[in-house]
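Researcher: Checking consistency across runs. Here is EAL domain-containing protein again:
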Amino acid sequence: MVQEYRIGVIAPHLDGEYYGRLLPHIHQAVRERRSQLFAIQAADDYLGITSLEEPIAFEIVDAWILILPSASPSLLEILETGDKPFVCIGFQSPYPQGHSVLTENRASMKDAVLHLLDHGHREIAFIGNMEQYDLLERYKGYLDALYERGVPLDERLIVKAHDNLLASGISAAEELLIREVPFTAIAAGTDMIALGAIDCLQSKGFNVPRDYAVTGFDDIHQAAVNYPSLSTVQQPFEEMAREAVCKAFEMLQGRPPAERETIIRARFIVRSSCACSERTQFVSAEDFDRYLRNLSQLRSSFHNITTNNYKMTRGLINATKDENINIAKLFWNLSHWACLALWEEDEGGQRKLVVRQVFSKNGDPVPPQGEKYDLRHFPPLDYLPPSTGPGGEDVIILHPIKSEMKNWGYIVLAGPLDPLNNLVANDLSRHSFTILAVALERELLFNRVRSIAEKLEIVSRTTNDGIWDWNVTSGRIDWNIRAHKILHTSTAKLTSHPLSLFRLIHSEDRRAVRNAFKQTTEMDKPLQLEFRIPGSDGQFIWVFMAGDVVRDELGTAIRIIGSLTDITEKKANEARITQLAYQDSLTGLPNRLLFKDQLQEAMEERLRDGNKLAVMMIDLDRFKIVNDTLGHQTGDKLLQRAAAELKECVGEQDIIARLGGDEFIVLLSRIEREDDVSKIAARMLQMLTEPFLLEGQEFYLSASIGACIYPNDGSDVDSLIRFADLAMYYSKEHGGNRLQIYTPALSSKSVERFNMETGLRNALERGELSLDYQPQVSLATGKVYGAESLIRWNSPEGSTIPPGEFIPLAEETGLIIPIGQWVLEQACRECKRWIQAGMPSLVISVNISTVQFQQSDFPDIVRKALRETGIEPFNLCLEITEHTAVQNMEHSVRLLGELVDIGVKIAIDDFGIGQSSLLWLKKLPVHIVKIDQSFILNMIEDSDDHAIAKAVIDMSHSLGLSVTAEGVETEAQLQRLQQLQCDRIQGFFTGRPMASDQFIAYFREISSWMNE
């Protein structure tokens, strides 16, 4: 029993002298093997598509035949990786799995050129599209013939054509004549090129073959009946087709060919275009009969084309006269069954081919509309007509439907092959596919336009805008109901006459409106303007009008269409917004914008009278902490109080503005000397020292103030503000609560500060930060209690930057957060090293900045450091400054309590230099008090410092706290602290800050000494 298969043919086109002559022979060979043929047209000349791009029918076809390179690289890869055999006709298979059926192009063209050489020609031109494999082979045959006869190659005689059609032959012959290079013969790569060249030469008055001999390649029907008849190489179309089908079936049956290529011989046909006698082409009566048949077929074809053109026109009219195209009327020719499936996305976002139109002239079943198919399983086999089945006389034709707008889908047609296809390229059938794509595009656009029209109708009925349409030709304006409602309170009546509109407009605005309409009609400038209309109540109606012009085919304005919007409320809001734009909403003070305007005016006055003015920049110190701990609501109240107090400090002629956050700026509009600035700054600083009572809590503020003088320091607004800002930052960097007058040296300090900030941002990344450790020694035992970690910055320049220089900058910029976390984790890691080195009881002390202490998740950060480094909580002591501890007692008590619950120790650092007392410590869960080194330095000579140190130690012990004295540098200080029963000391006397390895050696040395 014969095995039935489905054979797919992919070709650029399914008609013409090449494809149209191969396809019937392929179909006949497939029918003889009781199998089924699927033909896919891949190319679209209009859209510039040359190959099939989608794997249509790839799951239902058993083997493929590719006529010339007609599949995209991606499809060839699918064939290469799949298990389905494929055969290439007219080009070499790019993969070993494929077989190639080729014409003997090279040897046949060599025979044709040798024939011309035998006629005595030496200057022989070659024309062809050498981007194609077979044409390139023919060009090589041309070269072979020249080489064999010793004729040198003249590159000027080679013309590379764009394609292989008639027009390329005409343009190539013209190019040869323009070059003025001598030639006596043309070897054309195809018959169509050869016929085009003959037409061109004859139109120029030359005789073929007397002046120029011409040969072709293919032996198309026109070759024999042309005048002069064309000498050419006869393509073995039937043998090529049958051989391709044969090889495909052999591979399907598991018998792969021994060779990758099959070469089919071609025969050179001698006629009169090469100057051979015309009668030599009729060597027998059969040749003469063939000549007459070709002539008759051509005559019949031209008649049929004319008839089909008329039918196609009627079909086009019938198919497209309704809103939607009808494919049954469009495809009037031999197709008796069709299915149009368009791309749509399903619920999962996958593309599917959905059946949208079908027809069957013979009553065969058709797939239901709305049926969905995967691309690789289309067309639907269950619905194909019986006449297309194995051995059937009809062919299944698949064609992609595309337009410039989109890829629509596919149409499948069933019917016999058109007998005209093997004579000429049947552009009529190709037009049908183009018409279908354009019609689908038209339907889509029509639906969009209809949707837009419906929306516009709804908008026109429901919008708050008035719609107007001015017919310039008739001189009438149509207004919708909303337009009349907008203008109903005007003092004049609105009619369809244009003058009625202009009578409504405020007299001061009429000229602008007329000019706007003139620019719209004469300069194509869209109409957009605002104007006033007097209302009957004495108020103005503000109107925004927009529109554009509609022109006829000559460019003459025929209509102006637009909208009308009542913007009276918008204008009132803009006025209010303008007022608010110059005022700070929180404090009621002027804002930056108004301040700069007033500063500019004051500068101009001082320029006229020769006096001076000053600009002061004020920044409240550590105000961010209030927001972070008590919330922005409390912070805002404090800002309002501070703003009111600062305003009291400046004169009536002076201006204070809020720039944002906790920054204020002051304009002293007239000063005599710098002392005037200092006096006002002193009043401000004194005022801020008084406690602010809010919600039962006292707040203490201070400020960093910077100032500059005009015209001494700057000549423009921005410079004065910038210089005052630089001075303020200098004041803040040096402790705040002070005034700094600008000097040019501060600008260079600003650059230094910027460079330091940039370097600090990269310090962690580059590994430039390190820790030193200063020993803490117990006075009672003499043993090492632990060490305080001290950060160092080793800059890329080789210098070590002390923490006092970069820590304030890190706190100000927020860099202290990542730096502080690194210090905590690194100190814990080193402590782990000490424990592993035999020092399990040591305590590592880490300084915590105010910014870190405000983090709500700081306890979690501590837990993480302990967990990841593996040290016990009692090995860690966290040091916070006295100022940080008492700044917000509620926050401090809560956070320190959570840290104590973890098990770490808490130390109050720098105690004694702040505003708090030891009584505050009763409220805080702490373990250690560290006496600031300023009291230790002179405690031997200064009785006050001695008394303070004694009081701190005694009161701390009474509260159950231990005491560490910082900055111990002499033995006398050590002995005095022993007498006062201080618990621990640290300082240069017992050990300078040192690296971790040095600290380990230090500990071992002290331990060894203690054990002696």
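Researcher: Does this match what you'd expect to see?
Model: One thing to look at in this run: The two ends are 110 Å apart (CA to CA).
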